[in-house]
Amino acid sequence: MSPRRRDSAPGPTQAAALAEALRASILSGELGLDAPLREEHLAERYGASRHTVRAALQALAAERLVTIAPYRGARVANLDDDAVDALQALRGALETEAVRQVSAECGARWPEEVTRPAREAIDRLALAEASGDWLATTRTHAEVHRVIVDAAASPRITQAYRQLESEILLLLTHIRPDYPPGSLAEEHRAYLDEVQRTGGEAVRAHLAHSAALIRAARPRAGTDEP
């Protein structure tokens, strides 16, 4: 491939396809936290121009899957404890508002057609837990919360919430909190019932508990052990 072709401006489809390939590598755990993402290496690996690589990395930086810093280049993101707390707080604000809107429409006992998608997602979470597949578990876990948010039928809240999902998946791909086998599905069955009764209070308590487990599972500085 000639230098002229390699340095040409990327088309949106090329950049989006490369971003999707890199996203998959990051969220599968193939690329670890803080792994360097060198433009030249990625251009060679994927047969893309440097401009295309740069555009893909910028797209992933907008999702907070990648950090880009002067003199350090691009790296897979690695959330510290403050970032985890901030992320959970933002998730909580969005999920609380979604739950408030559903309860305003449906009352303290949501109808079966509203809760069914969440209960079906929880069933899939139970199957993923039973399989021992942590990646599948993290994704079905995220799906449970997503469908609860989706129940508000608010495109703006849904869009904002989904923009946060990649960060949570990135974190949980590499950090496995201490959830006893089978406990996640049961915890979320109780959570679905509790948000109908207490709304935002249940959301905040649930996410605070999750954040505490994540912090406890993070490796200590200078060690490989939690």
Automatic annotation (TrEMBL):
This is GntR family transcriptional regulator. It comes from Microbacterium schleiferi. PROSITE patterns: HTH_GNTR. Keywords: DNA-binding, Transcription, Transcription regulation. Residues 12-79 form the HTH gntR-type domain. It comes from the Bacteria.
